[in-house]
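Input for the complex:
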Amino acid sequence: MEKMTSPYKWGMVIDLDRCTGCGACVVACQAENNVGLCDKKEISEGRNMHWLRIERYWVGEYPDVRVRFLPVMCQHCHDAPCEPVCPVYASYHNPDGLNGQVYNRCVGTRYCGNNCPYAVRVFNFYQHEWPKPLDNQLSPDITVRSRGVMEKCSFCIQRIRRAKEEAKGEGRQVRDGEVQPACAQTCPAEAMVFGNLADPRSRVARLSRSPRRFQLLEHLGTHPSVFYLKGGGREHV
Ligand code: SF4
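Predicted:
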């Protein structure tokens, strides 16, 4: 685990008891981050570009079966398997505990994607286009990636940067709840809580200590920054 050099360690808690599987977070992420759209044929070939996916599973036995949903994005692991395998250091760890991806450094070996146990990295096989007037929807804060580049969730780093700059200008730290990724902002069920895990009083840090917490593939020792809350109760924080 690297030495903490920043007052921030960004993380997320997702309450599976709240998630209805509506998919609004997936669309919000696509719109915010200029994620390329794949057509039916491309998706049938496994070329889906979404940075966030909703896994489905069920609990119980027939006929008493209940469907559950599991939103999965980059887990921003503290000991990330994607980082040491990149030959050009395009995948790196930033001081705030995030897994960064330097697009103009990526040479497309896909080692990182193959080494990610969560399968959350997507490779741009096509030159995605936004014919006019659809190009008006592109966010000017985000690079429009080209073919041959690996991409993934950044916890909307453009929003984090803006919040940090504003806070720095005012001589303070980013306040709890001041910055949210597009997915968390959009979720109608407020299933996603984002914030600074390094602040023990933040909402995300308190929820991450819940007895309902668990992490995906915890036994691998990747130490993700995303925590999930199992179904079966509510946290009131
Ligand atoms: S927007 Fe919220 S409720 Fe809908 S799928 Fe995403 S996490 Fe679940």
